[in-house]
Design brief:
This protein has 317 residues and is α+β, with helices and mostly antiparallel strands. The chain contains eight helices and 14 strands.
Length: 317
Amino acid sequence: MFEWYFRATVCYGYLYDVDWIATSRQISKSTDPKRPDQDSAWFERGWTLQELLAPRYMEFYDRGWNFMGTKQDLADLLQAKTGIAKQYLTGASNFKAASVATKMSWMAGRTTTEIEDIAYSMLGLLNINMEIHYGEGVKAFMRLQRTLMESSTDESIFAWTIPTKGLTCYRGLGQAPKFSPTNWGLLAPSPDCFSKYNDLVVLPDLYVPRLSGGYRWTQQGVQFQMPMKSGTEVTNLFGVARKEVTLALNCWRYGTDGKPYNISIELLRNGSVYRRVKCDDLGRKKGSKPKTNRVLGFDQVITRPLTITQPELDPFT
């Protein structure tokens, strides 16, 4: 579907439940009695995200088929409604260059009739393929992230926090799945966890390549290959594994001073593996970045694994 929208000469967005107020160039609240004082349902549907981003030219119409404007005409309004930066809507910047965290944030708060479609509707946006298995429920989003890890080195996929409004993408279940906010893994349980991070970036000039292919999925969770040397975020000066680890990620957020701040997460060792803690916050440090892989000017080739366990989201607990 994503490619169809992209190749189309023109796409049409029909907002069946709102009126276009031409004098003020505003969209009314939904006329659906089931949605009092809310925006159009179009802005909350998961599948409409690709309908909005993929077309190169798109026209919008209200419930009376009154022409509202093109995607370019309405860019400021659409940015306010969706959280998608104007440059990605107008085509001034290619949305494919946005970080994984940014793309995930665009899905936050949206819903789909089938729970699995929260993940499936993002395949084109993330430029990946995976088999469709209706019936897997909330596990589809976890599988989406594991699939993305196979082809992407964008570590903003690990930069998320607990959403204050809960896992709203899964409100169609009636009762949102529960998970431990203080004992989780690196993969987020829902796109809602990225709602505050639509401005994270990956900066090639600051990016430090990971050793031995970076990170990968294992039966225990996500495993990084870290430098086998003392004085890193994983080992102390004596080369002993730290109990608490602050793992710097290859992603950044610009501060009010215009400087990039490196994003990090907190890990706690439990035996030979780690788990993520303090899931309600991301660390940041001005000008910092992951440790380099060099010792005395030479590439460090000896590594040690850092494995972060990954629980499965269970909708029935």
